[in-house]
Amino acid sequence: MSADLSTTYLGLKLKNPLVIAASPMTQKLDSLITLEEKGAAAAVFPSLFEEQIEHDSLELTKLHEFGTDSFAEALSYFPEEDDYHVGPESYLDAISKAKKAVKIPIIASLNGTSKGGWVRYAKMMQDAGADALELNIYFIATDLTMTGRDVEARYVDLVAAVKQSVSIPLAVKVGPYFSSMGNMAKRLVDAGANGLVLFNRFLQPDFDLETLEPKPKLVLSTPFEMLLPLRWIAILRGQLKVSLALTSGLHDAAGLIKALLAGADVGMVVSTVYEEGSSQIAKILSGLREWMEEKEYESVEQLKGSMSQQNCADPAAFERGNYMKALTSFTGKFI
Ligand SMILES: Cc1cc2nc3c(=O)[nH]c(=O)nc-3n(C[C@H](O)[C@H](O)[C@H](O)COP(=O)(O)O)c2cc1C
Q1: 115 to each of 10, 137, 138, 324, how far by Cα in Å?
Q2: Ligand 1 pocket mutation pick from 77, 135, 201, 281 by most atoms within 8 angstroms of CB
Q3: CB count in 10 Å sphere of residue 82
Q4: Over the stretch 126-138, which tens digit does the pLDDT of each residue have?
Q5: Ligand 1 centroid to 272 CA: how many Å?
Q6: Could you read off the pLDDT of 151-167 as tens digits, one per residue?
Q7: What is the CA(270)–ligand 1 centre distance, in A?
Q8: How is domain 7-309 classified at the architecture level of CATH?
Q9: Of the residues 173, 187, 258, 308, which has the fewest C-beta atoms closer than 10 A?
Q10: Atom of ligand 1 nearest to the CA of 225
């Protein structure tokens, strides 16, 4: 009998634990259909950004009068509507179309940092047919008077505001840069998150040496990046009753197996699909199936969390003990 790959994420019953993370490929109907055919169990739409929504309700000319306003600056990074998914109305329309074209759950994505009128789009995404919502909070605190406590309150307040406006499940995608990641995770859950998507990649601007301007830089991930979310999912699994998704650095079947062992309900992929094509989805799933059969696991449910910190024979491996071991066992050559 072949292994049962089904899992539950955000209350959604999925045929397997491989989900396509937020990216433009899920919003294009033909690529979404291919991703489903290759075996993806659910798809997260690319984000609709707070700035895009606010932009829609302001006159562009007025906006540019603000000149150096950081909001206008953020806006200048968006491609034209024709090139990408910009435009809240076309985004909602794309959700409805996707729901008709595929059977897999569609998770809409909102991306912002502050409570405001734009949050009403959460409800509109629900009304357009989204099965769940992912809220990506990407906040860079450049104001030096802002404390960690202020930043955290901002996250928590935003989650509570979005949660209030929808009845579909809510996942929250955040980065790892909190002094107490575990406490922050708990507070996001207390504020209403049904799931946590760990971790957002904070892309750093590069410098253009010709124009002498900072320029946005998107580099695809490497498998090494998976170790940070892997550790935190293992730590959180036994302590929080919440759905967990691993994103960043998952590139192959081994990555998905590790994510599940740590305690993730699903693993999310983007970079590897861009690099290897959609056939990578089927490859990862068959690798998972083969490994489970070889190790005599009957179901994904059975292996989920079996290497979480709580279930691990050596819990210190997730703490300082691991750091000391790594340093003392290093045998690099000095040339
Ligand atoms: C081209 C591209 C577009 C992305 N767009 C979004 C987005 O709109 N919203 C979001 O939350 N994450 C976005 N991401 C981040 C991915 O969802 C994912 O979290 C990240 O790429 C790490 O996963 P990976 O290692 O499988 O690439 C994007 C990533 C890429 C490469």
Answers
A1: 23, 11, 13, 42
A2: 201
A3: 7
A4: 999 999 999 999 9
A5: 11
A6: 999 999 999 999 999 99
A7: 6
A8: Alpha-Beta Barrel (3.20)
A9: 187
A10: 25
